Amino acid sequence: MPKNHRFDHNTFRVEYQEKLNLEKIPSQAGKELKDKQFGAETLAADVSSLQAAQSLLYAAQSHSMLIILQGMDAAGKDSTIRHVMGGVNPQGCRVYAFKAPNDEELQHHFLYRPVPCLPARGMISLFNRSYYEETLVVRVHPEFLVPQKIPDINIEKPKSLKKLWNRRFKEINAFERTLTSNGTIIVKFFLHVSRQEQKKRLLDRLTEPDKHWKFNRRDLEERKLWPDYQRAFEETLTNTSTEYAPWYVIPADDKWYARAAIADILASRLESLDLQYPEVKPADREMLREIAAQLQAE
Questions:
Q1: Could you read off the pLDDT of 188-233 as tens digits, one per residue?
Q2: C-beta separation of 229 from 140 below 8 A
Q3: Which positions ≥6 away from 71 have C-beta within 8 Å?
Q4: Using an 8 Å Cβ cutoff, are 96 and 127 in contact?
Q5: What are the structural domains, with CATH classification, of the chain?
Q6: How many Å apart are CA 117 and CA 122, to the nearest integer?
Q7: What tens digit of pLDDT does each residue of 34-69 get?
Q8: Phi, psi of 153 (to 5 degrees)
Q9: SS3 52
């Protein structure tokens, strides 16, 4: 754990198949951080720890990390990436935004999409949205299944759809088990905002000129489906939060708190690997000393 560790990560963690009710989970900042300024200091310390841990990850080349960010529209995914990951070495980190699948991707199993984006050993991949859209957006909009042409699935029959979602949960768990068995650390975050906070942020996009570009009329249509999305998230989180690839529900009404909590969890997870820089063989150390002596003699 980082020396400045201030969070009990278990308070955010979802247990596999627990009964989850997002309405009963706080979306506002907890009491671990006394104010926004203290939160900024905590974030800075954890980002520093994360930078050091990433340097070891990159050098050791034994593990990799996959970070998944999900949340409702205006939950703060983009700004979280900037503030938490902005200080890491870009050579060792890649960020991928998952938009609607293209025609080629629709011709494959839904887990075909993330494979080219998975992190190699020593690397971090961050998914801004992810393959989980297939149990979230697609669940709320089952008509999106039509171009996927999945055999024996009838979107007009609830039992058929329930069978598909349960199958996808199992496929995701098996996929993530395979990745973790190969040395990939998977950490998944749901940015939990209240409906009132989302309203405020959407209004900001409409009234503040520097945020106009963020507004999409579809966001308002999706907002009307808030209860459906909450149920979809509850089902997805509880059925895919495993011991090896857990979900964390992060209170995100206060962005400064969410960023500090996420940075803290990421730094702690990497530090728990107890990685070491590769050792240099005695013969190589002697060679390095000789080269250093030659340079000093110039």
A1: 999 999 999 999 999 999 998 888 898 889 999 999 999 999 999 9
A2: yes
A3: 77, 190, 191, 192, 193, 252
A4: yes
A5: 9-297 (3.40.50.300)
A6: 14
A7: 678 878 888 999 999 999 999 999 999 999 999 999
A8: -115, 125
A9: helix
* Nearest alpha carbon to residue 46 among 95, 7, 94, 92: 7
pTM of the model: 0.93
**Token representation of residue 271:** 């530090």
241 CB contacts (<8 Å, ≥6 apart)? 13, 14, 15, 16, 188, 247
In angstroms, the CA 114 to CA 110 distance is 8
- Positive or negative, the Cα torsion across 288, 291, 297, 298? negative
Residue pair 247/190 in contact (Cβ under 8 Å)? The answer is: yes
Contact 200, 253 (CB under 8 A): no
Closest to 88 measured CA to CA, from 128, 127, 42, 57:
57
Residue spans of alpha helices (H) in the chain: 36-60, 77-85, 103-106, 137-140, 158-181, 195-207, 217-223, 226-240, 255-271, 282-297
**Token pair 């006394």 in the structure block, residue:** 34
